[in-house]
Amino acid sequence: MSVPGLQLAEAPDAPAERTITINAGREWCFEVSHGSTLELKLTHGTAEIFGTELPLSQKFTFSGTKAAVYTWNGCTLEITGSPSVGYISEEVPMSEYINLHFALEKARGRAAELNGGQGPRVMIVGPEDAGKTSLVKTLAGYAVRSGRKPVVVNLDPKEGMLSLPGTLTAVSFNTILDVEEGWGTSLTSGPGPVPAKTPLVYYYGMERPSENEKLYRKLSARMALAVTSKLSSSDVNRASGCIIDTSGLLASKQSYDLISHIVAEFSVDTIVVLGSERLYSDMTRRFEERAQNPVAVVKLQKSGGCVDREESYLKQTRETAIKGYFFGEPKRTLSPYTLTVGFDEMHLWKVGEVSNIGAELLPAGETHSQPLYSKIEPSVGLQHAVLAVLNADLGDKEEVFAESTVMGFVYVSSVDDQKRIMKILTPVSGRLPKKPLIVGAFPERVSNL
Ligand SMILES: Nc1ncnc2c1ncn2[C@@H]1O[C@H](COP(=O)(O)OP(=O)(O)OP(=O)(O)O)[C@@H](O)[C@H]1O
């Protein structure tokens, strides 16, 4: 009630608190929209989120999340706040997932006994929103709990793993995943409760692997080399193997050659097909039944709680990731630096797009050859773009750019065409490095950073 005369607003209601009991072998699926929060605490029993165990009595805060708390033996949760969706699901294929983990563990154990033996190199494929990333998290979480150090590779540019969307990443997991952040925090995020991870990042700058297939192939081949070298850095790494997450857009016939490319480059020995009978049958024919270097193909069910994400939700998630890169999270804020840079100091390339001139308009016998990158001049068109700073030299050939990792990202806050200057946000102080700056078409521009 407001106080008469003082016009004081009524204090907001305290967020609703309630207890949820989950029986063994079930999961509580929940969704929290962007802008609202949910606090969750395990008060009794054991529970995990995508393979990472929740400690008793520790509060976790979620925002802009769709996830599930699974329990093998039953548990009680205390939650504060109202999730937009919250229900208990009985359709949980966790026993299939744990059996896959045990099979991989057996292979890792055999590799470890050989001292220097190669552990499993697993690739997950399936349609969009089939739960591939969640399965990768679960398998990585279980592997870490078993004392392994698997390398997790994200070849889906739609979602960044420990980096911005539009990137391809790999990271060696030797500490637990962060249940609040999804994957955890990288070194750019500042100190956190879970040790930061150091991902290897390549910039693709497009949403679909087919948009610049030439670049996607080059980057994934380069990533495979880096992963192979990481795996051979110690017997533990080698025996732990790698787990590769792929884009749901590869799950169509036109993209099977790209799947073959990844299988060959990463020497994949197990393909896990999630949630598609047809893809499973195609993969079996293409890889398991081939005469040379057959690859084991395993089929898993899609989890009942796995949800399709609307474009608006994904857009907000991307926006949050970009904001988080420069400004941190509510619990760990960061202060980016603003630099004023002259047009002459900026050396820019754009990720090559397919020409939209119709093939019929090209001279006879000529086909479109899509460039890896095209050199561009600074202009107002770059306003609100995120630019990737490459670990390459300005004089390098574009072929070399496609083999170069990302040093970091900067954000173009404003452009003054008249004065030929730009204001840019950077996560670190100092001058803008004299390095190639790459602008992509994805993620989209975010104006209200
Ligand atoms: N059991 C579950 N309960 C609730 N939400 C879930 C569950 N499994 C997955 N999700 C959520 O469903 C969404 C889609 O899952 P996920 O990202 O794993 O699918 P994906 O196949 O990797 O998607 P994409 O092809 O788009 O990359 C995610 O927001 C994820 O957190």
UniProtKB/TrEMBL annotation:
GO-annotated molecular function: ATP binding; polynucleotide 5'-hydroxyl-kinase activity
Gene3D superfamilies on file: Clp1, DNA binding domain, P-loop containing nucleotide triphosphate hydrolases, Pre-mRNA cleavage complex subunit Clp1, C-terminal domain
Cellular component terms per the entry's GO annotation: mRNA cleavage factor complex
InterPro entries hit by this protein: Clp1, Clp1/Grc3, Clp1_C, Clp1_C_sf, Clp1_N, Clp1_N_sf, CLP1_P, P-loop_NTPase
Residues noted as binding ATP in the record, renumbered to the chain: E27, K66, D129, A130, G131, K132, T133, S134
Keyword tags: ATP-binding, mRNA processing, Nucleotide-binding, Nucleus
Segments forming domain Clp1 P-loop: 126-327
Domain Clp1 N-terminal: 22-110
Sequence ranges assigned to domain Clp1 C-terminal in this UniProt record: 334-442
PANTHER family with a match to the protein in the record: CLEAVAGE/POLYADENYLATION FACTOR IA SUBUNIT CLP1P, POLYRIBONUCLEOTIDE 5'-HYDROXYL-KINASE CLP1
Function summary: Required for endonucleolytic cleavage during polyadenylation-dependent pre-mRNA 3'-end formation.
Subunit structure: Component of a pre-mRNA cleavage factor complex. Interacts directly with PCF11.
Identification of the protein by name: Polynucleotide 5'-hydroxyl-kinase GRC3
Organism, scientific name: Ascodesmis nigricans
Lineage: Eukaryota, Fungi, Dikarya, Ascomycota, Pezizomycotina
